[in-house]
Design brief:
197 residues; alpha/beta; Trna Endonuclease, Chain: A, domain 1; 44% helix; elongated
């Protein structure tokens, strides 16, 4: 069986184009476009897989931070006078129609107070605003159930910039940040007081 190879002839602008030459150029362009589309599809698939891996890595880092914070959380808050006896991880709130309202990374409870802790790798201002909104949703949810307990909030992170730390404290949140092999909790104080919802 003989195979045919097609070579693209070089184009000389001084020559008059023939139908065969134009047709050959168009076929060559079509082949090049097909190769380009195939390459773009492969690149898109690779990017999608990379995004999936990065997302999975982000989830893993978040889980590591949560596991680092969890063991000493009740004890660390005792230094602020809280005697939390219950700790729940990844609690979801749903309305009476089972619609998702919000998720809380850590919920700490004692008799009349509840601390809601949001954990991020590197919290930003948007994360803090989102936690403020979450606190409002939780208060509305509690009021509908005649829950009169006081709700407080905290932001935890592996890396917290000074601006974000100050923003969280100004909004009445406790800030949880790494310190050596464990972590410290910074309370809003002075002109910033802990906010209760």
């Amino acid at each position: 069986m003989q195979t045919q190879t097609q070579e693209t002839e070089s184009y000389d602008p001084a020559e008059k184009p023939t139908f065969e030459k134009v047709w050959a150029m168009m076929q060559d362009n079509a082949r090049q476009m097909q190769k380009l589309r195939k390459s773009q599809k492969e690149t898109a698939l690779q990017m999608k897989e990379t995004d999936r891996k990065i997302s999975k890595l982000g989830d893993s880092i978040g889980d590591i931070i949560e596991e680092m914070v969890k063991p000493n959380l009740l004890e660390k808050f005792r230094a602020f006078g809280f005697v939390f006896t219950k700790l729940y991880k990844n609690a979801e709130l749903r309305d009476e129609k089972n619609n998702f309202l919000t998720e809380i990374d850590f919920t700490l409870e004692d008799g009349d107070k509840v601390m809601l802790v949001e954990v991020k790798t590197k919290p930003n201002t948007g994360d803090i605003i989102e936690h403020l909104e979450r606190m409002e949703k939780v208060r509305i949810y509690a009021d509908k159930r005649n829950d009169k307990r006081k709700y407080l909030g905290a932001i935890a992170g592996m890396v917290i910039n000074e601006n974000e730390k100050l923003f969280a404290l100004k909004n009445g949140f406790y800030v949880i940040e790494p310190s050596g092999e464990t972590f410290d909790i910074i309370a809003p104080e002075g002109c910033f007081s802990p906010r209760e919802w």
